[in-house]
Amino acid sequence: xxxxxxxxxxxxxxxxxxxxxxxxxxxxxxxxxxxxxxxxxxxxxxxxxxxxxxxxxxxxxxxxxxxxxxxxxxxxxxxxxxxxxxxxxxxxxxxxxxxxxxxxxxxxxxxxxxxxxxxxxxxxxxxxxxxxxxxxxxxxxxxxxxxxxxxxxxxxxxxxxxxxxxxxxxxxxxxxxxxxxxxxxxxxxxxxxxxxxxxxxxxxxxxxxxxxxxxxxxxxxxxxxxxxxxxxxxxxxxxxxxxxxxxxxxxxxxxxxxxxxxxxxxxxxxxxxxxxxxxxxxxxxxxxxxxxxxxxxxxxxxxxxxxxxxxxxxxxxxxxxxxxxxxxxxxxxxxxxxxxxxxxxxxxxxx
Length: 351
Ligand code: NAD
Ligand code: DAU
Known about the structure:
Elements: E1 4-8, H1 13-25, E2 30-35, E3 55-59, H2 65-75, E4 79-82, H3 89-94, H4 96-118, E5 126-132, H5 156-175, E6 179-184, E7 186-188, H6 197-206, E8 211-214, E9 220-225, H7 226-239, E10 245-248, E11 253-255, H8 256-271, E12 282-285, H9 300-306, H10 314-327, H11 329-335, H12 339-348
Parallel strand pairs: 1-2, 1-4, 2-3, 4-5, 5-6, 6-10, 7-9, 8-12
Antiparallel strand pairs: 9-11
Helix pairs in contact: 1-7, 2-4, 4-5, 6-8, 8-10
Nicotinamide-adenine-dinucleotide (NAD) binds at residues 8-9, 11-15, 35-38, 40-41, 61-63, 83-87, 102, 106, 130, 132, 161, 184, 186-187, 193.
């Protein structure tokens, strides 16, 4: 059996943690990382493992069927870990088509390449699609998303991810392609691009810039440390049932305003600032269009069937994350120069 695994989007936030885990934990696997290197893809995220003999990087687009056919023919992958996506809700509001292109057409193209290459010889093959809890829509104050919750996506991002999940399931039901899907809550940790709430606020606190809180800051997210997410993916990839969906979450709900205050508290201590100094940077700005109120995951199935549990308490995970950003100033400076400045201006200066 071939031991090659295709990871798509491995130069992004979650993908880079996934590639690192698989390259180090499974030396018998060859990990091929296919990434287009959009603004969100960064080979610096993989500097520490780029010379490993069982790792190979390929620059390319998941919408390119010929490229995918050639890669499948060359490496005879037994597994696909599909992470590549346009991932930021705010960008999906300004440019929905980019999300349809990569998330819907790209995922469909990858499914076609896997189906053609495996040609019905599905024993020991796995097409694993990494998805999000946002496909389930928005919760009120009560309740949790389970694997049975009906899809109700409300942003162009979540609608494109929901479409991709449907295509993956359609290939399972129609062609028996051996698929697995997981839907995870909000991740945080090292290498998180500073367009997302936590790294954006860490970057702004360091630089004494305003901390933009959308609306009243009452929206709730369920935060999970990224290394716990990729540990769950590892367990599902190797032990999960074909055709099944698993929800992944941390049972760790925070309103945005409480979360940002906790960041401020920890960063004041770490930066030796006066207590309360960073909180003064909090600035309420115009709300995100169609802003989902609350996400919360019920991960009982994953715990009961596969024994996965999150390993880190949030305060500890956030502390580790802040420490990483403080010791990786060069990474942060590199990703926030150039185009990031234009993005930031367009996104925030008129709010
Ligand atoms: P990210 O934006 O940090 O990284 C995406 C990666 O995909 C980048 O390296 C980018 O260059 C690459 N990419 C984009 N378009 C491509 C294309 N057409 N072809 C090849 N590569 C392409 O995203 P992330 O936060 O790491 O999310 C990874 C996956 O996990 C996504 O599918 C996302 O929907 C899902 N997810 C993310 C979170 C989260 O909190 N970040 C939570 C649950 C699920
Ligand atoms: O739930 C999983 C999803 O989590 C993933 O599928 C997405 O890829 C990922 O980006 C994330 O989506 P969110 O929209 O929840 O994450 P974001 O960090 O953009 O925003 C978190 C919350 O903070 C949300 O309620 C909006 C708010 N926010 C965000 C930004 C960037 C602010 O108040 N101010 C900001 O500047």
